[in-house]
Write a structure and sequence with these properties.
The structure holds 2 protein chains of 2 kinds. By secondary structure, chain A is mainly α. Chain A has 2 domains: 99 residues, NADH-ubiquinone/plastoquinone oxidoreductase chain 6, subunit NuoJ (Four Helix Bundle (Hemerythrin (Met), subunit A)); 60 residues, no CATH class. Helices cover 75% and strands 0% of the residues of chain A. By secondary structure, chain B is mainly alpha-helical. Chain B has 2 domains: 104 residues, no CATH class; 102 residues, Helix Hairpins (Orthogonal Bundle), CATH 1.10.287.3510. Helices cover 80% and strands 0% of the residues of chain B. Classes of the chains: A mainly alpha, B mainly alpha. Chains A and B meet through helix 1, helix 2, helix 3, helix 4 and helix 5 of A and helix 3, helix 6, helix 7, helix 8 and helix 9 of B.
Amino acid sequence: MESLNLLTALAHVNVEQGFFYVLAAIAIPLAYGVVFDRNVIRSGFLLIGVFATIAGLFFLLQAQFLGLSQILIYGVGITLVIVIALMLTNARQETGMNPALPANVGLASFVSVLVFTTIYLSLRSAEDWPLKNESSLSLPPNIEMIGKHLMTYYALPFEFASILLLAALVGAVMLSKAEPASLANAGDEAEQAVDGTDRV
Amino acid sequence: MKDSKASCRPEEARDEADGGLNMISRASIHVVAYATAAVAITVLFLGGQLGQWIELAGLSVSRADQIGFLALVVMGLVSCSFGGSRLGVMITGTIAAFIVLTAHQELAMVRYLSLGAVLFAIGIYGMTVSRNAIRMLMSIELMINAANINFVAFAHWVDPLHIRGQLFAIFVLTVAAAEAVVGLAIVLALYRNMSTVNMEKFNLLKW
């Protein structure tokens, strides 16, 4: 009888909920791995997994465009930059060390538990969500709505975003460009003379 | 070669030398025991048995998730004090507690928002504690993604017609990409000057 009870309980769980919990059960251990893994490069690769599961959540929420751009920008772009930065900064040197600063552990765990409890309790007690039930069939395609908004009402933020990206691009090049002195040391003496006249 | 490695990480090396395989298997046995108990509690909770027992004990059924959560936390602390691996206990405990706390919420949106809260809390912990500057940036990316989950969840349930939440998520994505690139460039510049990415060594701005 009890096993029958369990079966009916499982039958009530719908597909969306099941997929959600599968994705959550993948995302949480991967996120822990990103924070706690002793090997920094491995945690960089685990980050790809976290981003992929979050893209899966976006697909569950019918945000197809955002899910795909999540894979493109986060899963490939940002993690690629992070892994390259890890390889440039000799992460192997600190492989065996404890990833955490022991002095901060107590305070940090207190703060993170406090943040989660605050958010969760406020979500739980909230009752007047302004929910709207629209059947997903009557809605216009996701990407069409996004494109319309970006070109009309949100055109100005869109332009600002492009300026921000340009500024970030220039800033990153400026910051990561080797300094003139180290360039001169690396080059030949003849090149050095040319470089020197050019730079001054 | 081995000696120099051992001096790099004195505590862990000593642990392995003392306990060896015995330590590892003991830690994993405790984790497996805890995981079994956590799965049992979760299944009992989902099947409704936990609620029935709590009703027998004279409390209201709506407290079943709180009592399940408390049981998970207490069992986790016990397992850790007996020498279970802390990371394993935390991972299994977080998943089980997450299922117990969110499965019977009447709104599906609360589940997504709670997952965002969990990932955000993990990101805060990583950002505060990390020794490596790049790991700190990774934790920040984790937090930004947790916020994005909330945006998309709100777009799905609160504003399904105009999906403005997804637009905000796109802008967040843009800012996050810019932040990651500039942050990593700063880390590379710091590494070039100080040949380390250890956060403890970056004390130039300390007064």
